[in-house]
User: Fold this.
Amino acid sequence: MVTTDSGTTIGRLVRRAGWLMLIGGALWAPYGLFAMFSPWGEDTLYREDRGYELVINAGLYRIYSLPGSLALLLTSVGLLGTLSALGLVGRSGRTGRLLARVAVALAVLSLLGVIMLVDPVFTASWLFGSLALGAATLVAGYRCRRRPSCGGLGPALLILGLAGMFLLPLWPLTYAVEVLPPGAGAAFIALFGLGWAAMGYRLSSAKPPRGLAT
Assistant:
C-alpha cells in the first residue's frame, strides 16, 4: 500500500502519459493516409544506383513523414510513463521498459531523419521503432494479465502489442507482394492509432483505471 502523496504522484504520471498516448494515437491515422496514398504528390524517388529513396519534395516529405515520427514518439513516451507508474517488476517488467526506451530512441532518430531529409534514416528508425513499441506493449500486456494494479489494461495492451508487431510486415504485404490494398493498410494504421487514443483517453480521465492511482 502506498501513501496518499505517492498515489497522487502516480495518478498524475498516468494522466500525463494518457494525454501523450491520446495525442500520439490521433497522429497515426493521418500518417497512414499520407504513407499509403501520398495525396498531394510524390515526395521521394527510388534511385537504383543508390539503393534507396531520395527526397524530391522537402515540404511534402515533412508533411507526410512528421506525423509518423511524432505518433511513434508520443505513443512510446506515453507507454514508458505508464509502465513506470505500474511498477512492473521482474525480468518481463524490465524488458518492457527497455523496449519502450528503445522505441523512444528510434522515434527521435526517425524525427532527425525527417528534419535532415534522409529517408533511409526515417524509414528504418520508424519501422524498427514501431516493432520495439509493439514488443514492449506485448510484454507489458502479458505481465499485466493477472495484476490488479494494472487496472484491467492487460487485454488492451496485448491487442495493441500484436498490432504493433504487424506494422513491420504491413509494408511488404502492401507494396512488395501486394496482398493488401493501400486502403487496408491505411485503415489498419488508423485503427492502431485509435486503440492508443482510446487507452490514452481512459488514462487521462479524472479517474484513472482502478489500481493505477492507489
